Design the sequence.
């Protein structure tokens, strides 16, 4: 299996009508189909989960779309009149965004966002992209970085999964292994596989609501509410604290 832009190749194929499933492999060998899949990444707004549609009603002003994928969020917000900067680490995904009409799509890791992008009023991290915070230490660094590139009325709309809500022996053992290593239970190391390609390994951090509140402490942000369809997946509405 070759290492490459598996996610981007999947997006490009989906744009051409080939919706072969996305495979996610965890570093302990656990393999599953992706939570959404390529057809969903291209789905119109009316087919999105209710939590995502409700969350985007809270978007305001200038928007940074983190992990833009095929551009569905950016395109919807553009249609609503927002100025959107869409970023992704996948060259194929960025190409798909541009082909579909995203006006400002950039190949950029989230850790490289800085003041050169301008000031944002909303940061959107839907499709479980709040998990791109990756680890407790990186989460605090990124959240402080987000604080410096956003307006005083800014908010983050971040979707994630409560890793403990749906149980399961395989997941519980992984959570315990993480804790022995000094990590949060929901920190996972995964890669995306598509046909003969596999992406590089990367960390993803799923958190309970209480864990998220702890991560936000001292970063200038606070969790003000959650939006959910079921207990296991939620969109966190995160706003600037009165005092940092």
Sequence:
């Amino acid at each position: 299996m070759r290492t490459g832009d598996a996610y981007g190749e999947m997006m490009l194929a989906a744009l051409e009508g080939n919706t072969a499933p996305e495979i996610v492999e965890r570093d302990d060998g656990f393999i599953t189909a992706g939570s959404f899949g390529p057809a969903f990444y291209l789905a119109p707004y009316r087919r999105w989960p209710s939590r995502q549609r409700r969350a985007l009603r809270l978007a305001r002003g200038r928007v940074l779309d983190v992990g833009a994928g095929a551009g569905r969020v950016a395109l919807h917000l553009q249609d609503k009149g927002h100025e959107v900067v869409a970023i992704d680490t996948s060259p194929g995904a960025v190409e798909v965004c541009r082909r579909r009409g995203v006006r400002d799509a950039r190949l950029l890791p989230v850790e490289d966002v800085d003041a050169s992008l301008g000031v944002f009023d909303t940061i959107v991290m839907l499709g479980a992209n709040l998990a791109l915070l990756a680890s407790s230490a990186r989460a605090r660094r990124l959240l402080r970085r987000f604080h410096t590139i956003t307006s005083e009325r800014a908010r983050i709309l971040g979707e994630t999964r409560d890793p403990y809500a749906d149980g399961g022996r395989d997941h519980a053992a992984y959570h315990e292994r993480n804790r022995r290593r000094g990590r949060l239970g929901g920190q996972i190391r995964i890669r995306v596989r598509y046909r003969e390609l596999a992406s590089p390994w990367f960390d993803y951090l799923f958190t309970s609501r209480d864990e998220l509140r702890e991560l936000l402490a001292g970063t200038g942000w606070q969790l003000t509410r959650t939006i959910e369809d079921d207990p296991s997946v939620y969109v966190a509405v995160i706003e600037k604290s009165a005092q940092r």
